[in-house]
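User: structure tokens for this one?
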Amino acid sequence: MSAGAGPPTAAAPTRRRFTRADVGLIAAGAGLTVLFAVALTRRPLQGLVLLVVLAVVALVLLYRGRLARVEVGAFLAVGLVVLPAAALLGPSFAIPGFPQVFLFRIVLALVVAVGVTYLVVRRAPLPFAATDVLSPLALWLAWLFVGIAWSPSKAIAFNYIAIVVTMVALVLATAAAGGSRRRLRWLGYALILAYGFVVGFTLLEARFGIRLPTSRLSNAVTSQPYAVTSVFVNQNDLATYLAFCWPFMLCAFFFTRKASWLALDALFILVGAAAFVRTGSRSSLVAAGVSTVAAAFLFRHLGARLSARTGKLLGATVAIVLVVAAAYLLFNNSQSDMLRQFRLEALLSQAQAGKGSGDIRTNLTSRGLEIAGGSFLLGVGPGQAEGIISSGINALGISNLHNWWFETYADGGLVGFALHLVFFLLLLLTLWPIARRDPDAFTRYLASGTVLALLGWTIGAVGPSSSVGFAPVWILYGLGLAVISRSRLAAAERAPALPESGRGVEGAGAGA
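Assistant:
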């Protein structure tokens, strides 16, 4: 550089030129926009599928680096946690215009696709320690397949079994949350959010009359304008779900001292109670009462292992209020149509007079017993009982037995009923000691809520028209299996490693 040269100056920033690639991208975007607009207008389903495919391809291209670092197991765990909550919301979270394509089915398809691949490449078995409890349910499913052989309608049988297989997949997905304590907690959070949506939507129904398309009251003239169904088809289904949730809310007073959780719990109880009185379900009311009474026997010896004295007193007060309120509703003389529908006397008088709900329940019970007895106690085959009671000269004008126990008996015979009952009792008896003695408070809480809800289900099973596709009961089964598996896995983790024969302690530890 010469002595007379001045200091170097910074190079002026160069302006990016508008290239042919940019023109091509803009033209392609405009073309795709027109293409999708035409496709969605003329062929909505094909256009939507094409749009989803393009969105997936774009995400893969844009985030291929991050996706390459994502573990398949973590992705699968998210799907397993989300699936039960999606099952609760059901067809109400469907793609507009396509009621058969809803969130639960989409998540289930992804979980199955990823899960099969994951199990193929994974060498170690999945952490699950409740196979013995699950076995009777698997045998019950196998017996349903055998029943196809003598089913009058094979199409109905295969459709029924397809629903059962879907629900068993839901059980397994929920049970898989027991593989780790963290996953089990996230499952709890997801179910809390789902409950918040379910009971929150009942406020919109009660205040503004807004109903989801899945409700049988949607766009229907009804004599019960106060009734609510939320994401379910009818009031009984919603009431049964609320009866399932009640024990978990009651148990919260005995297992936590956090004011924020107790405040949320109290809010959920109040909103749930406001929704429940609009359902008119006597069976679910009795089920909630059974769960409450059983809680007294479960908690009476736990003492210091529960929460603070204030929480226990508050929980006991809530339980007493519920029992008193249930007694009032069952024997009330109110002039309110909403409250009078709970009267037990009305059901008994209807059964004696041969009319109304009481007479229908009596006839359904006798028909269910006749169906199983007339098939040499083998059952008429999966899904067949519904067609029998709704046809012929003795048709009742209703297509469901409205009793899960009679449904399993009529369709599966004595063998099917026994297998399902053995699973139920084994689940119940295995959870009871976990609820009383497990060292982990969170596991005890979930075990307590599940076992109390199962006890209530012994009566609540007469609520839903058919429970074969009623997601809450299958989620409850899966949650019970998850709690059992978590308790056993945690016990194995706490147990000291024992040296194997012929190996030193160091070698055993290294092998573990």
